[in-house]
Amino acid sequence: MPAREHLSEIAAQTDFSTIRYAQCWEDAEVLLEALDIRRGDVCFSVGSGGENTLSMLSRAPSEVLAVDLSPAQVACLELKAAGFRALSYAELLELVGLRASARHPALYQKARPALSASARTYWDSNQAVLERGLVSAGKFERYFGLFRTWILPLIHSRRRLDELFEPRDPAQRRRFYHERWDNWRWQALLRLFFSQLVMGRLGRDPSFFRYVGGGVAAPIFARTERAIAELDLSKNAYLQWVAYGRFVSALPHAWREENFESIRANADRLRVEVASVEATLARAAERSIDRFNLSDILEYISEAGSEQLFDAVVRCGRPGGRVAYWNMQVRRRRPERLANRLLSLEELGQRLHRDAMTFFYSAFYVDQII
Q1: DSSP string covering 228-265, please?
Q2: What is the pLDDT of residues 186-239, one digit of tens each?
Q3: Per-domain residue ranges for the chain?
Q4: Residue 50 falls in which region: left (phi positive, over 0), alpha (psi -120 to 50) or beta
Q5: Beta-sheet pairing, 42-46 with 63-68
Q6: d(C-alpha 107, C-alpha 93), whole Å
Q7: Per-residue model confidence as pLDDT tens digits over 117-176
Q8: I want to staple 294 with a disulfide (CB 3.0 to 4.6 A). Which of 81, 268, 312, 325 is the partner?
Q9: In the chain, how long is the greatest CA-to-CA distance?
Q10: Residues contacting residue 17 through CB under 8 Å, at least 6 positions apart
């Protein structure tokens, strides 16, 4: 079965008309170190919420082609990129909902000329999304909002929550978790809320679990426990947003002021398409792409479809280039038969996975094209 048909199954089973991910929930700094983008590289990226694609622009590639099956996700990425082109740093944060603002209509009109015709049509009809805050508008973000509003208060007080994000050394972090945070309510309610049933209905899409074998709650609980006990939460933007609905003492890479000008300077090198990864790579010329950000799309396709995707990567990838991708619940990586074309950088991938501030992924892989 052609790989394109595997993604057609997803398209048939999943509603792509709404924003599922208003933010990118993969650590951009990990991605950038993995890909090691060089000035002038040609890059390919799965669009998703858009931040990681924008972060790739900060490395001055000659082009970043971002694709997504969802027109809503593409419109989301386009608007963020238009904000970098047309607005000041402070205005950009207001437009996307990272700072309080009463002037979303004016900021949108200022960024609107930098949008494609399809993105203009989308956002002209969805101004209420901007009023509520773009980065809070996805189904996944609303799911975390439910956790923050209804579950966290049953587990700990606001004071204890604030204590969780105080700077500590590693020993202090472990002690705080085991002595002050890890109670029976935390264990029971977290496992319930992040079960496949609840997550499928409220967070992701049930079709995204098609290839998952076994339960999802226990692995997610274990990864969350490690994140809280081991990572410096005062620097973890992603967990701060889950807990507070805002970034408190840290920001993801794309939203930091020190990266604004480098992303703006290269924003015109971004090309965005509504398309499947397979169809796009099938059209690409041989040895034409240097860096591939595949996000976690291998979760959603069969093992056979995954192998064919890697075949496409080695066909259009340039020697010396890199491929980066995440696993969450489904184990997918480059097939062994391609070991002579894709070198697995095992130590790098494992180290970056340990360092990642996005805690819910089971593995991170980096392959080098030979």
Answers
A1: HHHS-GGG-HHHHHHHHSS-SS---GGGSHHHHHHHHH
A2: 999 999 988 876 776 665 554 554 544 555 688 889 999 999 999 999 999 999
A3: 144-244
A4: left
A5: parallel
A6: 10
A7: 999 999 999 999 999 999 999 999 999 999 999 999 999 999 999 999 999 999 999 999
A8: 325
A9: 57
A10: 70, 71, 72
